[in-house]
Amino acid sequence: MDNPETKSPAELRIIEEIQDLGLSDYVAELDERGFTVIPPEIACPNGLDKRLLEEILRVSEERSGIKPDLKNGSTHKNFGATELAEKNKELGLGVESTDGISNDSPIGFEGQVFEDALMNPVLLAMSTYLLGYQCVLSSMTAFVKGPNKVNLDLHCDTLLPNPLPDHALVCNCTYALTDYNKENGSIAFVPGSHKKNRAPNKSETTLSKDSNAIHVDAKAGSLIIFHGACWHGAYNRTAKGLRVTMPVLMARTYMRTEENLCEIVPDEMLNRNGPRFPILMQQGHFYSVTDYRKQPERKEKMYKFYERYNKSIDGVLDSGPDLIDSYS
Ligand SMILES: [Fe+2]
Predict the structure, then answer these.
(1) Strand partners, 136
(2) In angstroms, what is the span from residue 187 Cα to ligand 1's centroid?
(3) Distance from the CA of 41 to the center of ligand 1, in angstroms?
(4) Cα–Cα distance between 320 and 324 in angstroms, integer?
(5) In angstroms, what is the span from residue 232 Cα to ligand 1's centroid?
(6) How do the domains of the chain map onto residue ranges?
(7) How many Cα atoms occupy the beta-carbon half-sphere of 98 within 13 Å?
(8) Which of 105, 152, 203, 290 could make an S-S bridge to 233, C-beta 3.0–4.6 Å?
(9) How far apart are the first and last CA of the chain?
């Protein structure tokens, strides 16, 4: 790693991008602890976080018919037994969990701001550092959490048998859209746990029993990035009000993704964003074909998008020593 001759063109390129964006210290922290918090002035210039918060609350209201009570959290208190939960259940909307997190899925089809959030150069540089230039969007979700009583258990997001590899296979880039601290129900991390190369076993998942677990203090507009093997959970919210977050889950191109985007992203959306967007939208490979007759069409599209993207990053995808090195 220290000898520049051993670095692939893709690795050299991402190192340069990281330096240009002023992210080197955050990458060092990510390597060491498995997570990092990038502050709003770097992560969300131009008020991206405020636009996201507004849109998520709008989508939430549109889907549930209830305006989220951001200030007091009354609409989401102990979510799971509230009117909103009952209503969501009736409508088949949202997902309930024991820690009181609701789950909406804005996934870009709900407005331009979600596409902007995905194309944020800071988010992309950190994802590329962990997953390479061919990484894809696995899912984009919004969590709205009110005051509740139960922690979210420790787990890691890489759903594979042990041992996990040293390099990340997925990574989580979470926009904190309201202030994070322990009382506000912050995410919890076990620093350095990504180096264990395994998920916690059943006896290790209780957050309150892990003395190494810590909470995160982050201002609204921060971007929390973590390695897919880092153990994490969340504290219950004792403060009033709502915690609103938008996790953007990214994956290496060969991982099974949470959302299957291959054949559902409209051409209009693919065309209105830059050359990386179709790759992120899972258009750069031809797996997951739902109908074999679509293969020639898929292949043609795939090559077109791949070539265009590769050209835009000076051909680093095919100049590495292996077909897919860790950074390409
Ligand atoms: Fe998780």
Answers:
(1) 251
(2) 9
(3) 25
(4) 7
(5) 6
(6) 9-258, 260-316
(7) 5
(8) 152
(9) 16
Expressed in angstroms and rounded, the spacing between residue 131 Cα and the centre of ligand 1 is 17
Q: Kindly report the backbone phi and psi dihedral angles of residue 219, in degrees, each rounded to the nearest multiple of 5, phi listed first.
A: -80, 150
- What size, in residues, is the chain? 328
Cα-to-centroid distance, 157 and ligand 1 (Å): 5
The two beta strands, 101-104 and 142-145, are: antiparallel
Per-residue pLDDT of the chain (328 residues; tens, 9 = 90+): 446 568 899 999 999 999 999 999 999 999 999 999 999 999 999 999 999 999 999 988 888 888 898 988 888 887 654 454 555 456 554 433 434 444 444 555 578 899 999 999 999 999 999 999 999 999 999 999 999 989 999 999 999 999 999 999 999 999 999 999 999 999 999 999 999 999 999 999 999 999 999 999 999 999 999 999 999 999 999 999 999 999 999 999 989 999 989 888 999 999 999 999 999 999 987 777 788 888 888 889 899 999 999 999 999 998 655 556 778 8
Please tell me the class of the 9-258 domain: mainly beta
Ligand 1 centre to CA of 233 (Å) is 7
Q: Measure 130 CA to ligand 1 centroid, in angstroms.
A: 17
Token code pair at residue 256: 């099974």
